[in-house]
Amino acid sequence: MPTTVDDVLEHGGEFHFFQKQMFFLLALLSATFAPIYVGIVFLGFTPDHRCRSPGVAELSLRCGWSPAEELNYTVPGPGPAGEASPRQCRRYEVDWNQSTFDCVDPLASLDTNRSRLPQGPCRDGWVYETPGSSIVTEFNLVCANSWMLDLFQSSVNVGFFIGSMSIGYIADRFGRKLCLLTTVLINAAAGVLMAISPTYTWMLIFRLIQGLVSKAGWLIGYILITEFVGRRYRRTVGIFYQVAYTVGLLVLAGVAYALPHWRWLQFTVALPNFFFLLYYWCIPESPRWLISQNKNAEAMRIIKHIAKKNGKSLPASLQRLRLEEETGKKLNPSFLDLVRTPQIRKHTMILMYNWFTSSVLYQGLIMHMGLAGDNIYLDFFYSALVEFPAAFMIILTIDRIGRRYPWAASNMVAGAACLASVSIPGDLQWLKIIISCLGRMGITMAYEIVCLVNAELYPTFIRNLGIHICSSMCDIGGIITPFLVYRLTNIWLELPLMVFGVLGLVAGGLVLLLPETKGKALPETIEEAENMQRPRKNKEKMIYLQVQKLDIPLN
């Protein structure tokens, strides 16, 4: 009788030495994705800056001014609290090389009221108050050019969008292992080339290329590890694969602190990707994919290797393998199937909005922290730490309480934390950090739960399509987020948090309109998906999430 891979793994080991070894290797891959996803916080750090005015340095040296006195005498005053400062992008139209200037309030000889003095743009560059460097300081991505920093981060999300939409087909067509090694090579090369880019344009091109392959590689790693383990361990392994990404965040904070110059930082986080090319000799092809390609003999050879590594033996009866998918009439899904019927249409709209919101809040909170935090390295480290309890809370709650209430609560906590942070005065920085960490934990939980629930709300024949379409909204959100954060902070530093707060609260309310999926079999037909909110008897069979195709996008 034909046997599934899961049947064989029950005898050969579902999560033993081989699977633990594979998890460790692929977890390293997951960790190295962190610098690409949120590395903008350090690579694009914008320090305090002011216009460079020829002659000011010489005058300051002649008069013996302190840095504070130089600022006070020669730079326009700051704007209202919480708003962009004119001194960063404007300068007095004054010839500082004149020898008639007095050392005490030199501009008084021109006009006693400085507001009447002519001002102009920074024609001679900027002075940056930082011991290190970033792409902002090197390419002067401030003032009129500040949109170029937004474009830099949006470009990597454009790459994510294109890469993740195509990776399902590519991995199914050419195999997991070949795709993994190809994306690793391109990602490593593009990362190193970006570190030595001579111009902004070249840096942008290599960043886009990184986006095209890096998320795709992360997803292939997810697919591989979930296909190597037995069905009972898939969800837990998937969550801990994302925890490895969180470890990467912590390491990134330390490396960025040790290397404050962006080129050395980029080179350091890109170089380890070449190490993953050694996986050619360490990681076998997925036996599930081999079976889907009718390469059963090779699949059985790999499964025997897995059993041998695990110290197990396979019964002689387990010799014929088949796919877990049910045979029957093949249906061709289309986008219309996601909006044709009322309940599935509602599920699609809510899921798309939640994917979008999760991405905007997750990336947006990290970017905003880089603009508003006192110590960017410690703030980044503390906020990354809260992703660990978020993962454990998901494991503890989703099979006890359910999906809907923890999901709704995590969105609402994230939204409420954003709004609360706006009203906290600046002298209570410790409280602001606590509230920000709560918001980060909430949106991390929401991001991971939407990955799970997305698969549980669609019937079998449109499940992969539904996941692809809905999850693509997270990349759309990532494209918009840099412009949302950096442009709104020019109006008011806390304005992005107010937008995030509203988005999060609305997302939490919409989640309550979805059916609870805990303890329910995955729907197989449109009719079952339409009736999910009605009481029904559970099927006396186990149905689990397939991972032969790309089905769970990034955290």
TrEMBL record:
Question: Example GO biological process term?
Answer: purine-containing compound transmembrane transport
> Which molecular function GO terms apply here?
monoamine transmembrane transporter activity; prostaglandin transmembrane transporter activity; putrescine transmembrane transporter activity; xenobiotic transmembrane transporter activity
Its annotated compartments are: Basal cell membrane; Basolateral cell membrane
Q: What is the topology of this protein in the membrane according to its UniProt annotation?
A: Multi-pass membrane protein
Show the Pfam families listed in the entry.
Sugar_tr
What Gene3D superfamilies would the database entry show?
MFS general substrate transporter like domains
User: According to the lineage, what is the superkingdom?
Assistant: Eukaryota
- Assigned keywords, A-Z: Cell membrane, Glycoprotein, Ion transport, Membrane, Transmembrane, Transmembrane helix, Transport
Name the residues that span the membrane: 23-45, 178-196, 202-225, 237-258, 264-283, 350-370, 376-398, 465-485, 491-514
| InterPro entries reported for this sequence | MFS_dom (IPR020846), MFS_sugar_transport-like (IPR005828), MFS_trans_sf (IPR036259), Orgcat_transp/SVOP (IPR004749), Sugar_transporter_CS (IPR005829)
Q: Which SUPFAM superfamilies match?
A: MFS general substrate transporter
- Domain named Major facilitator superfamily (MFS) profile is located at 23-519
- Give Gene Ontology CC terms: apical plasma membrane; basolateral plasma membrane; presynapse
Catalysed reactions, as listed in the record: prostaglandin E2(out) = prostaglandin E2(in); L-histidyl-L-proline diketopiperazine(in) = L-histidyl-L-proline diketopiperazine(out); 1-methylnicotinamide(out) = 1-methylnicotinamide(in); (R)-adrenaline(out) = (R)-adrenaline(in)
Please state which protein family the record places this protein in.
Belongs to the major facilitator (TC 2.A.1) superfamily. Organic cation transporter (TC 2.A.1.19) family.
What name goes with this protein?
Solute carrier family 22 member 2
Tell me what organism the protein belongs to: Pan paniscus (Pygmy chimpanzee)
Q: What is the lineage of its organism?
A: Eukaryota, Metazoa, Chordata, Craniata, Vertebrata
